Amino acid sequence: MSNAPHRFALIQRLLHWLMAACIIAMFFIGVGMVSTVAPTYLPLILIHKTLGFTLLVLVVIRLALRRHYGAPPLPADLPPAMKLGARLSHLLLYGSMIVMPLLGLGMLWAAAYPVVLYGGIQIPALLPQSDRVHTLLWNAHVYLGFAFFALVLLHLAAALFHALIRRDGVFWTIALFPLRNRTTPAE
Amino acid sequence: MNPSGNLSRSGLGSLVLIAAVLGGGAAAFAYTAGWLSPGRLTPERMIAALTPPSGAPLGHRRNHAKGICFTGIFEANGNGVELSRAKVFERGSHPALGRFNLGTTDPNAVDATVRVRGLGLQVAAADGEEWRMAMINPPFFAVSTPQAFHDLLIASGNKDAEAMKTFIQANPEFAAFAAWAKTAPWTASYAEEPYHGLNSFIFTDAKGGEHAVRWSLLPTAQMVPVSQAELEKRGPDFLEQELTERVRTTGPQRWTMVTTVADPGDPTADPSKAWPESRRTVQVGTLIVQRIELEQDGPCRDINFDPTVLPRGIRVSDDPFPAARSSVYRKSYDLRAAEANDYPRTGTTKP
């Protein structure tokens, strides 16, 4: 592991926090827009579609950056169960980031809605209208959305656990700013 | 890992902080989703108010549930270009698809029992943009706000006669609609009806000028008033049969699309308030209905006539209805798509 970086590259860290803010906004916009008939429904749905598509582009860039720069190793003294949890949760986080926008796009296509983003950008439909496909993708988008939100909360809890309780330097690898009283990664 | 008592106290503080962040996040999420606000007017509540005591019309639209499909063209005459840069107004023929319907939650309603008739329409422009709309035959809407529409549904479904009285006291604009419902002549044909958009939209022209407008489709067919009793005698599904027969024997049916331009100060946020007759109107084209198809296997079945699907050059105004309709229509579409087995297609064209 001698060639593994000690922390994520600045561009990776910037992208992580930018996407984190956008993804959290997406959860709230998503559940907020489907539970209102107020005029804000329209700007919310426009932002949700535009941001969702943007996040799909960003996650592709993010995976390419991860492939290029790699990721710092977990602390050697981290219990195996936590290591497994960390790997699995990151796999699920990346998977959700890729799948959620695709499900969103697919459910709109399968309902014969034109997909028009902010600025009038049209995304051509790649699926024909289908009641069955729409229902499947719509349910997947909703329930995976809830699971994704729970996963992000878990991720946040783990990050705070590393930063505040274990103080093992894991949080420092992704932090934008230095933490007070931080310790360097155990190696 | 940290044996000192001080650190374990800070460790406890950290745990409390983590729990607070998670709990706060989950609570904020639940609040945003409306789970903590039973009073919020959600699309689910609007649809619950639309649902008759006999149950929801599974597989069908939750309102305007009875209808028949058509295809045809929208022939733009080019006059609309001065008001909006939308491509659908450029002189030429644009493919149109739509649905004549009855304002009822019962897909098997007897035609003569339904006062409001409607037209859903989708016009496609060459650049791939779509313009969808859903219009009705009264010249103004029954109420001023989506909340009032919800309250109307609740009051009219209430067996207590006082409920309607209380509603009308709170929403006096309903009186004009009630008068229309009582006195406006009935016709025995979808082809003889006007269809009014009622909601106000903003047209943007090529120079960036903005115009608040409403639009109507006015029939070219001669209107022949009939009594409700006479219509009832003709059968429960007379309107669909008559339209199919009319198009078959006399050819395509036409409506002139007229846009009315608001003067400054005209009420754009309230579709229950008609604008004065003297307002400038522009005829922008003709809807030509060429072919009628039953809804069950027809092309309109799959379309949600969401009035906020608009091409560039048309956008919503401060009228709160298009957003509310979009939200509720979406929910209605999600429900009926999931219930498609309750309204099976007979053709083999779709899986």
From TrEMBL, chain A:
Transmembrane parts of this sequence: 14-35, 41-65, 91-121, 141-165
Organism superkingdom: Bacteria
Subcellular location as annotated: Cell membrane
Pfam families: Ni_hydr_CYTB (PF01292)
Cytochrome b561 bacterial/Ni-hydrogenase domain mapped to chain residues: 7-172
InterPro entries: Cyt_b561_bac/Ni-Hgenase, Cytochrome_b561_oxidase, Di-haem_cyt_TM
GO terms for cellular component: plasma membrane
Stretches assigned to coiled coil: none
A GO MF term: electron transfer activity
Membrane topology listed for this record: Multi-pass membrane protein
Keywords: Cell membrane, Electron transport, Heme, Iron, Membrane, Metal-binding, Transmembrane, Transmembrane helix, Transport
GO biological process: respiratory electron transport chain
Primary localization: membrane
Cofactor: heme b
Gene3D superfamilies named among the record's database cross-references: Transmembrane di-heme cytochromes, Chain C (1.20.950.20)
Family: Belongs to the cytochrome b561 family.
Protein name: Cytochrome b
